[in-house]
């Protein structure tokens, strides 16, 4: 085993570059996927059967197919269509499909939105009916009750399962290594393996980085959960 190679400045920079790309993709998918997930959660819990079925079909597809397949469908499927490539120099937003990063981020965001929508929808449905009725009794509209009572309460209850989903998505970013021109932690390990034939060392080091990131994020979520869900804790006299 030759661990010294991994700690050479050039190779360490590869892993640091991969970590930065991982954070960048994670932040992007959480932002865009979070917005889409909230919208689909509202559709799932709306009174409209049409919106419920549309959102249900979306989440069924996302949760029923592997993330890797979704990446392939966008990057090797949609982005490689002849009519898309004919328009991606002139027509917005098709221009974005020229970017491998955009294709991967789109797949990650869609996947995150599908799972987040079901998490939030479940938390919304679990809202205490008394809180909702109290809001209506105060003269609030349905949207005001949703914005002031239901969503804040649901978001707090959704925090524990949401933290697990974030961890899964961080690990899922490793699949970006299957897309050419994208470089993250797993891609850095693959390059080290190709250059030095150090399979065990390269991927074990990558696993260690993922473990460090996972435990750091778990700690942050634990603090957030203790703060925002303290009212759910059983307190002994």
UniProtKB/TrEMBL annotation:
Report the Pfam families cross-referenced here: BPD_transp_1
Q: Which GO terms describe its cellular component?
A: ATP-binding cassette (ABC) transporter complex
Indicate yes or no for the key word Oxidoreductase. Answer: no
Could you list this entry's UniProt keywords, alphabetically sorted. Answer: Cell inner membrane, Cell membrane, Membrane, Transmembrane, Transmembrane helix, Transport
Q: InterPro entries in the record, alphabetically?
A: AA_ABC_transptr_permease_3TM (IPR010065), ArtM/GltK/GlnP/TcyL/YhdX-like (IPR043429), MetI-like (IPR000515), MetI-like_sf (IPR035906)
Please give the chief subcellular localization of this protein.
membrane
GO process annotations (BP): amino acid transport
Where is the ABC transmembrane type-1 domain positioned along the sequence? 19-221
Please give the Gene3D superfamilies that the UniProt record associates with this protein.
Answer: MetI-like
Cellular compartments annotated: Cell inner membrane; Cell membrane
What sections of the protein cross the membrane?
20-45, 57-78, 90-110, 202-224
Membrane topology note? Multi-pass membrane protein
What terms describe the molecular function in GO for this protein?
transmembrane transporter activity
Check the record and name the NCBIfam families matching this protein. HEQRo_perm_3TM
Q: Which PANTHER family match?
A: ARGININE ABC TRANSPORTER PERMEASE PROTEIN ARTM, MEMBRANE COMPONENT OF AMINO ACID ABC TRANSPORTER
- Family per similarity comment: Belongs to the binding-protein-dependent transport system permease family. HisMQ subfamily.
Q: What is this protein called?
A: ABC transporter permease subunit
State the organism named in the record: Corticibacter populi
